[in-house]
């Protein structure tokens, strides 16, 4: 039989868990237990105080918790304790950590080259601050009983090994002392410390962070001397970035109302519409042309050479010579089909990035690969700084269809850097995976010599050194484009000094017009220095008008002087209001060519 006390609703005791045998309350307890047991640990590259990625990581030997230096300093000034354990802590106890990054920007072990992740057991050496994986330290230090740092050779003991992350024993962030006791630092207190981070620190004290703090002190002293006592405006530090900066009275370089930039697009930036539809932006009534990226505009111009024929067909190609220690390889680059890839390769070659770089991988019957400055196959950086995209999906792109094809090596889609390879045969299975940007036009005998060099079958590394001594560039359409652009800009912009000189000469011609008819009427020699060639200034309102009683000698220069008046008659007409005499017939003789003068 059913119980009379069975309710059709959840009672207060069931909600509170006072009687834990009830199914509803038991489920609630299970949910809380699972939430506590399934917590997610803090990522290894984040500060335990700010929960954000660190820039200047430091740690404490006691707990191994990682902090950012700019976050731990305000906390130590206020509480003088370890945020993780609550034990007393000073700045000299901080240990500066030295993380290492690979070519892709990921943290990794500098000995085993394995990338760190949430499953890696990470440790640090207290004496040097270098960060390694525990596997490397365990095999090369602990088991081998070799108690020296693997990078610097500094001696250490087993007690100097600090565990930063242990995936088998993760730390619960909620159990840290500063979270349980809510030890917080206000923004004002943090700002005061950051404005003067060395006010509480003895930079001469010994400790892992002393070197870093000494550098900060020296940098502040240099800035103080450079400012020479001037007050530095720091009001911009706490402001959000202005995505649409205010426009002044002068039009911008890309303005539709001013002088257009060479890379100005046919469409505007859209700021005018955005300013009228958003209350955040200041109203703007002038359209500004959007600016196309300079490199993208250059690539578009070079791509237009793809349809050229005859002599202009070679304008879209680049030609270079790879000088190796076994001979030379002449290559032709398809700049019109893979402009971004070719420009990256040419700029790296011009910068000497390929000089004395070895080919680290050689597989006879397949290809030879190089371009990694580290020689490991895991390094290299593009000219753009970051890996760039593939160009094998363009219309008319070249394929791996012959021996001597030049293509980019990558670690996956859109991961091109500086490494490239040259094929020993047609490799159609690489189409759609690697960008072909050139092929050999000379040096096939050198390529055959490279293929015949013995290699290590386990690593495909050649037994004899194969390196690029230098790269000589004979033709480059990108440099030709830059030259044409500079000439066009010079024509459009003009030489300012020359324009000023032309304007001055034009003004002089307007002001120094020779009055030939006056010279002829006055029967004055042309080279008479008493008679100027400048026309008289226009009479202004301030000058008095000539009246009947005025002395004409004084007005026209007087007698005996060098003025114009000495050549004019001083007699005034008897009747000023007399009619104008009839116009005489014009003489057809004219001045001619002045040969009769």
UniProtKB/TrEMBL annotation:
It is found in: Nucleus. Residues 219-251, 541-597 are annotated as: Disordered. GO terms for cellular component: catalytic step 2 spliceosome. Pathway: Protein modification; protein ubiquitination. Residues 219-236 have a biased composition (Basic and acidic residues). One of its GO terms (biological process) is protein folding. Keywords: Isomerase, Nucleus, Rotamase, Transferase, Ubl conjugation pathway. Gene3D superfamilies: Cyclophilin-like (2.40.100.10), Zinc/RING finger domain, C3HC4 (zinc finger) (3.30.40.10). The keyword Nucleus applies. Its main location: nucleus. GO terms for molecular function: peptidyl-prolyl cis-trans isomerase activity; ubiquitin protein ligase activity. It holds the Pfam family Pro_isomerase. It comes from the Eukaryota. Residues 324-473 form the PPIase cyclophilin-type domain. Signal peptide: none annotated. It catalyses: [protein]-peptidylproline (omega=180) = [protein]-peptidylproline (omega=0); S-ubiquitinyl-[E2 ubiquitin-conjugating enzyme]-L-cysteine + [acceptor protein]-L-lysine = [E2 ubiquitin-conjugating enzyme]-L-cysteine + N(6)-ubiquitinyl-[acceptor protein]-L-lysine. Residues 40-114 form the U-box domain. PANTHER family: PEPTIDYL-PROLYL CIS-TRANS ISOMERASE-RELATED, RING-TYPE E3 UBIQUITIN-PROTEIN LIGASE PPIL2. May catalyze the cis-trans isomerization of proline imidic peptide bonds in oligopeptides thereby assisting the folding of proteins. May also function as a chaperone, playing a role in intracellular transport of proteins. May also have a protein ubiquitin ligase activity acting as an E3 ubiquitin protein ligase or as a ubiquitin-ubiquitin ligase promoting elongation of ubiquitin chains on proteins. Belongs to the cyclophilin-type PPIase family. PPIL2 subfamily. This is Peptidylprolyl isomerase.
């Amino acid at each position: 039989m059913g119980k009379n006390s069975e309710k059709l609703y959840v009672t207060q005791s069931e909600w509170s868990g006072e009687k834990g045998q009830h199914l509803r309350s038991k489920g609630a307890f299970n949910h809380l237990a699972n939430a506590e047991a399934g917590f997610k640990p803090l990522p290894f590259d984040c500060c335990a105080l700010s929960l954000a990625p660190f820039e200047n990581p430091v740690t404490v030997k006691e707990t191994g918790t990682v902090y950012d230096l700019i976050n731990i300093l305000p906390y130590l000034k206020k509480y003088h304790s370890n945020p993780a354990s609550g034990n007393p802590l000073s700045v000299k106890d901080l240990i500066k950590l030295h993380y290492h990054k690979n070519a892709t920007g990921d943290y990794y072990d500098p000995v085993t080259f394995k990338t760190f992740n949430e499953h890696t057991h990470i440790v640090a050496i207290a004496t040097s601050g270098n960060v390694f994986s525990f596997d490397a330290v365990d095999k090369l230090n602990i088991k081998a009983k070799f108690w020296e740092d693997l990078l610097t050779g500094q001696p250490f003991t087993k007690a100097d090994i600090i565990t930063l992350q242990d995936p088998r024993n993760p730390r619960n962030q909620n159990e840290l002392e500063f979270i349980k006791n809510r030890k917080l630092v206000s923004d004002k207190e943090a700002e005061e410390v950051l404005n003067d981070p060395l006010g509480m620190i003895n930079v001469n004290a010994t400790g892992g962070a002393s070197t870093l703090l000494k550098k900060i002190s020296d940098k502040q002293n240099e800035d103080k001397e450079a400012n020479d006592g001037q007050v530095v405006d720091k009001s911009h530090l706490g402001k959000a970035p202005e995505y649409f900066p205010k426009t002044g009275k002068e039009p911008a370089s890309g303005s539709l109302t001013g002088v257009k930039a060479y890379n100005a697009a046919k469409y505007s930036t859209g700021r005018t519409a955005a300013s009228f539809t958003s209350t955040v932006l200041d109203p703007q009534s002038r359209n500004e042309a959007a600016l196309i990226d300079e490199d993208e505009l250059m690539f578009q111009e070079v791509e237009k050479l793809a349809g050229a024929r005859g002599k202009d067909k070679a304008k879209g190609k680049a030609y270079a010579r790879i000088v190796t220690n076994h001979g030379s390889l002449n290559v032709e680059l398809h700049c019109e089909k893979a402009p971004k890839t070719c420009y990256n390769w040419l700029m790296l070659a011009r910068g000497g990035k390929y000089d004395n770089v070895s080919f680290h991988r050689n597989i006879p019957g397949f290809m030879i690969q190089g371009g990694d400055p580290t020689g490991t196959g895991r390094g290299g950086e593009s000219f753009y700084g970051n890996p760039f995209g593939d160009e094998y999906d363009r219309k008319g792109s070249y394929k791996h269809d012959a021996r001597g094809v030049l293509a980019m090596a990558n670690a996956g889609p859109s991961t091109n850097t500086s490494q490239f390879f040259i094929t020993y045969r047609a490799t159609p299975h690489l189409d759609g995976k690697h960008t072909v940007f050139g092929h050999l036009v000379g040096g096939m005998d050198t390529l055959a010599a490279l293929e015949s060099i013995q290699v290590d079958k386990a690593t495909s590394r050649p037994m004899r050194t194969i390196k690029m001594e230098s790269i000589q560039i004979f033709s480059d359409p990108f440099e030709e484009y830059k030259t044409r652009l500079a000439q066009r800009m010079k024509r459009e912009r003009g030489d300012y000094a020359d324009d000023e000189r032309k304007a001055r000469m034009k003004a002089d011609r307007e002001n120094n017009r020779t009055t030939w008819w006056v010279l002829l009427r006055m029967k004055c020699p042309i080279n008479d220095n008493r008679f100027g060639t400048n026309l008289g200034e226009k009479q202004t309102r301030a000058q008095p008008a000539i009246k009947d009683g005025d002395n004409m000698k004084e007005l026209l220069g007087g007698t005996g002087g060098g003025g114009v008046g000495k050549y004019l008659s001083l007699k005034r007409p008897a009747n000023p209001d007399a009619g104008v005499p009839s116009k005489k017939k014009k003489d057809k003789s004219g001045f001619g060519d002045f040969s009769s003068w």
